[in-house]
Amino acid sequence: MANKPTFPEGFLWGGATAANQCEGAYNEGGRGLANVDVVPIGKDRFPIIAGQMKSFDFDNEHFYPAKGAIDMYHTYRDDIALFAEMGFKTYRLSIAWTRIFPKGDELEPNEEGLAYYEDLFKTCQKYGIEPLVTITHFDCPMYLIEEYGGWRNRKLVDFYERLVTVLFTRYKGLVKYWLTFNEINMILHAPFMGAGLYFEEGENKKQAMYDAIHHELMASAIATRVAHEIDPENKVGCMLAAGSYYPYNCKPEDVFQAQTDNRENYGFIDVQSRGEYPNYLLKQLEREGVVIPFLEGDKEILKEHTVDFISFSYYSSRVSTTDKELLDTTAGNIFASVKNPFLAESEWGWQIDPLGFRITMNELYDRYQKPLFVVENGLGAVDTPDENGYVVDDYRIEYLRQHIDAMNDAINLDGVDVMGYTTWGCIDLVSAGTGEMKKRYGFIYVDRDNEGNGTLKRSKKKSFDWYKKVIATNGADTE
Question: Which of 84, 261, 290, 427 could link 127 by a cystine bridge, Cβ 3.0 to 4.6 Å?
Answer without folding.
Answer: 84
